[in-house]
Amino acid sequence: QAQLVESGGGLVQAGDSLRLSCTATGRPLNTYDMGWFRRAPGKDRLFVATINWSGSITDYADSAKGRFTISRDNAKNTVYLQMNSLKPEDTDVYYCAGRGLGTSTFYWWGQGTQVTVSS
Description:
Elements: E1 3-7, E2 10-13, E3 18-25, E4 32-39, E5 46-51, E6 58-60, E7 68-73, E8 78-83, E9 92-100, E10 108-109, E11 113-118
Parallel strand pairs: 2-11
Antiparallel strand pairs: 1-3, 3-8, 4-5, 4-9, 5-6, 7-8, 9-10, 9-11
């Protein structure tokens, strides 16, 4: 069964860095655009960053620009989110997601990884 598995979350202090990873099993990632999203309990899921299938095009939420970097290694079937200068307001569950080429909706979701930033 195809799955996306996130890892790399944890508890850090403000100003620290984390690198989240999202590894796919059962499907090759090179036919998917990928994204990172975040959601707090009881709230809507928010866009963080996206990267196209080849890694040549990226997009970021305003809150992530200049601090976060999305990247991918298709040979490793993995997408990354490098998070620097973390702030307490970055605290959330972070999810990776995929959408097939030519589609507009992310429909392949991982289970999420918790990021907690203390002040």
